[in-house]
């Protein structure tokens, strides 16, 4: 149970980190990812993140919440 709680905290921390990089938006853009992460990490994220599907989101927006969940469901 301790391990599960640690994983939940880490998962939430990752989402909060992306939320900070995305300036509070529920999505992060490719430009924000490239600006904030080293090139290899940015490419890794963008290849594995789903596109954020919402008409209010700009093109090349990514869903960091589902990406974070997928990392911790392994």
Write structural notes for this entry.
This protein has one domain (2-72): Recoverin, domain 1, CATH 1.10.238.10. Helix content is 62%, strand content 9%. The protein has helices at residues 2-21, 30-36, 39-48, 64-72; strands at residues 28-29, 50-51, 61-63. It is globular and about 30 Å long. The mean pLDDT is 88. Residues 57-74 have a biased composition (Polar residues). This is EF-hand Ca insensitive domain-containing protein. It holds the Pfam family EFhand_Ca_insen. GO terms for molecular function: actin binding.
Highlighted features:
Recoverin, domain 1; three-stranded antiparallel beta sheet; 3 strands; 74 residues; mainly alpha
